[in-house]
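May I ask you for just one protein sequence along with its backbone structure tokens in two labelled lines?

_____
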Amino acid sequence: MDVLQSMFPDVSETILREVFQSVDGDLSRAADWILAGRHLENSPSQNSSSNIKSENSTNVLKPAVISVGSKSILARGLKAILLDGDFADVSLVCKDGEVLAHACILCARSEYLAALLSSIEAQSGQMRRLELLDFEASVIQLVLEYLYFDKVNIPQHLQWKLNSVASELGISRLRRMSEGSLPEESTYMEDLFKLRQNPGDYFSDGFLVIEGSKLPIHKVVIAAACDYFKALWTVNMAEQKMDAIPVEDISKETFNLFLDVIYRDGHTKSESITPENAVDMFLLANRMIVPSLQIFCEDIINNNIEEENACEILEIAWSLSSTLRHNTLQFIFSHWEKIQLTDGFKQLPPAMAVELKQRYDQESENTLLNLLRAVSDHEVSDIRGSIRMEVFEFLKDQLDEMNVGDEEGVADTPFGDVEWRMSNLRVSTGDPDEQDNFVPFLKPEDIDVIFDHKQLTIAVTNLRVEMKEIKWWYKRLSFPRVEDDGEASAAVSGVSIKLCFNIVSQLLGIPLLEVDHFNVNVGQFDLRLRNSKVDFLYNIFAKVFKDKIRSSVQRDLEQLFQDSLLHLTKNINELSRNLAEGSNFRRY
């Protein structure tokens, strides 16, 4: 420990002790660990409460701020801009090359660099040139990484060079990071917000015109947060030449709040975005393509839906947010009688009001009323039996209409490429008995109906389908040419189908049935070719045809349920309602 303390006097004794213990007292490994800066990521002390004070710490009471998202809204954009050199207005001249940067970021993050840059007169149409001839470009790149993102990955071989640069440029927090010391509290958010508070002092390079007023901005910051403006300034030649860009259809107050969030890197005063202005901020965030701010505002709106504002919110959310639209519709349907009387409903576009009424009527009609009500009037087994028969009739009708289309292709066989085709792939779900009556393979007892809390599951097992008059043909493409054709029959047994429905949140006290998911699995498959004239190719093409028919049946069964499950849901809902009302079921 004494040796470590003499080697790293600026690292706290607590951290040195934790590092020393974590490497089992190996002095060499402990030194390598600290030099690589790994103790900054792994030391528990870094993330716990500490009595260590920063070099410039003061007891300043800061206004409470909250984050609008879990990640920086500037970091990704700044990284791309720094890499591409967009909007650069400073060239840092190093001993082995030049590095492009942005004066506003440098000045906001380093008082020393601000003093240097303020003394350099910019020539018309040219960048400022700041000479840092004592330093290598690779080290200056690390400095920029810290200034722009507030974090840096320090290669071990550049650690002390970076320490020297940080010391000379007066960036104390970076210097402590390069030494492996615990850095003082970050001032990243406060530094960037200085650009917003005093844009003229920090090389503002453009204006946004809102309601006739010019708001000075820094293109690098705005473009880093807003893909909308980045595209405007980097793609559109006309806007690139404009010092002032007009922004229409937004209030100055709302846009100023938006800029506050941007310049605070996705933070805002806790009381700034309220239920009263959240809708305007939501629309602006969507327009400017700032997803984290849009989601933040959406949450505020979701928590403040009321009868008087529900229709206004629905109109806004209709094409912008599926989550907000869904939640608003649920609220409207559950307060329908009062919603119809509000000014918001009366002011809806006529087409939307009509569609909303139709949706409400449909939701009200297609309810699974008896799942919670009719149990008192009917035995559960009666309900299961009724649903089982409905599913049985549905499957029989649907499978009888199933017709797998013709299939063709080219197979790669040990005998070369062979062209093939199958046709007349008609599905049969039963056989005639001795009296020529149709006897289906599927039986009602093969269908299980399960009620489990808020889910209805219908499981079909041992389903069997056949194809009896398949036509097949193949031809070998290369010499010697071989061609054959004939008929075939196929049987697919052990097909299992699982249909899952959710009983979702109540509408006017009545539960709804909605499709959750379904699974189709094809079981055992048998295929027999008839009239084959080329015996040595029989097994090869039996397998080709078998694999293709199996995948086709699987595909078409899945498509069948994809297309018809809503109809089945409607039938079950209608069946359940009639059971509850004690009337006979009327098929649609």
